[in-house]
Design a protein that fits this description.
Helix content is 40%, strand content 22%. With 336 residues, it is an alpha/beta fold. α4 (126-140) runs parallel beside α5, α5 (162-184) packs antiparallel against α8 (224-240) and α8 (224-240) runs antiparallel to α9 (252-274).
């Protein structure tokens, strides 16, 4: 047969059934998720020369867009997932530390006719982060939308020592969120959107810091390493009762959010420098004062209202160039 002739080749494909077992950090199995088995017989017309890789059909999942929301089994995170299910064209992942609570949240949205997917993710567990990152890289080739929503706050009446509150709060709101970004930013696809849920409390806290600290947090040449050092300095000084003398205010939550917003600006600048043609937009935002377990029942906004600005940033249209590296509230860029 000459090279110019063509012939029909029958290709038999068998997709293997896979069962994924979720585990707790201690290794105990929690639940199983079967993947659909399919057996297909596909006649293909091809030339006698092998097709080049560029002409092969891409894996369906690699072409599917995917959004991931941390800490989304309740509150603002759940509302963000709900809104994305209605507006985002792709797979939306609700994530939670606790598998049972996460799956209950998925079922609650299913009762509304929405179809989010679930993946266990505890941002305070490095193994959980790396496992999730590997999952999204292998299944989708990366992530299109990442919303870092997970966070904690001590109640005003909590009698835990301030040093304890500082260490625990910054561990989640700053250091663990930074770990998420460290592992997931390389996975963000061209045109991707990254949203870090911060707070207006971070802005007011910044204004209460010493002039020297304010200058560094607002500086465009502050490095991520310097910022990490400042956040650790705050924790260390609270243990010695020296944070006020060091120019820090008396709010662990506020400092954690000041750090997160500053981190967002640093990483946005890095994206612009290292991936200038990828069109990725990364921002920090304030959802507002929202009625959640964290803020309490007197807050002025519902969770769905609190989700408006994070979702707006997550769905900035293709080709948009701003906002990027900004702090956004009520869908408007705010001064820093």
């Amino acid at each position: 047969m000459s090279a110019s002739q063509t012939h029909v080749v029958s290709v038999f494909c068998f997709r293997v059934c896979a069962v994924t077992m979720r585990k707790t950090p201690s290794g105990h199995p929690l639940s199983f998720f079967p993947v659909v088995v399919s057996l297909c017989f596909t006649p293909l017309c091809s030339s006698s020369t092998a097709a080049s890789p560029s002409t092969t059909t891409p894996d369906h999942n690699m072409a599917t867009k995917v959004a991931v929301v941390t800490g989304s089994n309740k509150g603002i995170g759940l509302a963000i997932v709900r809104a994305l299910c209605k507006q985002f064209q792709g797979d939306i992942y609700l994530t939670a530390r606790d598998v049972g609570r996460g799956q209950e949240a998925v079922q609650s949205l299913a009762s509304e006719g929405l179809k989010p997917m679930f993946h266990q993710l505890d941002i305070n567990d490095p193994n959980s982060i790396t496992t999730a990152a590997a999952y999204f890289k292998d299944k989708y080739g990366g992530v299109d939308v990442l919303v870092n929503n997970a966070g904690i706050a001590f109640k005003t009446a909590d009698d835990a020592p301030f040093a304890v509150q500082a260490e625990v709060t910054l561990k989640t709101n700053f250091f663990a969120t930074r770990d998420m970004l460290t592992h997931f930013l390389p996975l963000i696809k061209a045109g991707g959107r990254v949203v870090n849920v911060s707070s207006f409390v971070g802005s007011s806290t910044l204004n209460k810091c010493s002039p020297a600290l304010q200058q560094r947090f607002r500086s465009e040449d502050i490095s991520e390493d310097e910022l990490v050092g400042l956040m650790q300095q705050f924790v260390d000084k609270t243990k010695k009762g020296e944070h006020k003398e060091g120019g820090w205010p008396e709010t662990a939550y506020g400092v954690s959010k000041t750090g997160l917003t500053t981190l967002s600006m640093i990483q946005a600048r890095r994206l612009s420098k290292e991936r200038p043609n990828d069109g990725i937009l990364l921002n920090a935002c304030c959802p507002g004062w929202v009625r959640t377990d964290m803020a309490g029942p007197k807050a002025t906004k519902s969770p769905d209202e609190g989700a408006v600005t994070p979702v707006y940033l997550a769905l900035l249209p293709p080709g948009a160039t701003e906002p990027h590296g900004k702090f956004v509230s009520e869908k408007q860029v705010q001064p820093w």
